[in-house]
Amino acid sequence: MQQNRRHTAGLALAALLGSTGLAWADSSTQDELDALRARVDALEAQKAANSGPGDFRIGGTTLDFYGYIKSDFFYDFDFVQGDTAFVNAIGEPGNATDGQFGATVRQSRFGLRTSTQTDIGELKAQLELDLFASGGRADLRLRHANIQIGDNWTIGQTWTNFMPLSHYPTSVEFNGPVGITFARVPQIRYTGNAGNGLQYSFSLEESNTTSSDPVITGAVSYTGDRFSARAAVLGGNVTVGGVEVDQTGFTASGGLTPWQGGLIQATFTTGEALGPLFIGGGSAIVGGQANDVDGYTLEFRQDVGSDWNFGIGYGREEYDLPSSTGTLNFTELETLHVNAFYSPTDNLTFGAEYIFGERTSSTGATVNGDRVQFSAQLNF
Prior knowledge:
Elements: H1 2-22, H2 30-51, E1 56-58, E2 61-76, E3 100-104, E4 109-118, E5 121-130, E6 141-149, E7 153-159, E8 184-195, E9 198-205, E10 215-223, E11 227-240, E12 243-256, E13 262-272, E14 285-286, E15 289-290, E16 292-304, E17 308-324, E18 329-342, E19 348-360, E20 366-379
Antiparallel strand pairs: 1-2, 2-3, 2-4, 2-20, 4-5, 5-6, 6-7, 7-8, 8-9, 9-10, 10-11, 11-12, 12-13, 13-16, 14-15, 16-17, 17-18, 18-19, 19-20
């Protein structure tokens, strides 16, 4: 890159010196001056066309490397929840504690994006990994692996089209509030633009549950200057213990910027056999029946100056039938995240968060737990 800059600067200097010398010559040398200037302009245009956005270029493909290093430090007051604030762990006898400190770097991630101009349009690719492998180990885990053809087609693994990603609450800890769906699955998706801020999409996806059939989704969204909204539907089936039930879902979400630096957003999701898609991970089938569930999130955020951001996020999941991810069951899960972020530079952010979680069993008994968490994140 610096070699190209030096080469271009040299040509520009040559043009300047040439014009100085040619100024003493007669008008017959004007053609030579024009030709030299044209050559410099052509080289500048070629340099701009070959550079484009991206960290590196290989042939006709531009490569962008991105990601962040993140360190988290947390303290569980009542029940050990692990590297993430997993509300289902609250109340489990084996997780009871008088206080336990923990730390992790497993949320750190690394990604690569590519872009290639072809006869059929721009081809893009994404490959992203983090360290959240199963079993609590800091091993590599695949997050995204997909290709995009033009502005319409996405093929590979990415966020499910059913998920209200644009209105997902912000948190220091990895999961965020309960009450919202969260999944990355292999899929084929078509996205279209209807103009005036309207966009629609359809997808054929691998099921995030135990099913031999695909999931079909559809979504429509609107993005304006101060308001955004999205709605999506999902249809498929789930099989557990030889019992198959329909899986259906509807989600609606919206965001509003009522004043400078302020944000209010909410999500609502309802359906049958949707539990495995939610942060709380409720059961899809209980006693041979589809388990209906409703989920809600609500968030308020405010920028204070250019360096600080404060927020509060609430989430809730309500199941018709008791789910169990341990020795106890639950019919309701509830969380509250109160956080603050400080960014002394564009790529460095410090975060602090208080997290409250509550779990309600089928008998109506409730148990809760508290957690505080701090983080340092450097983006690249």
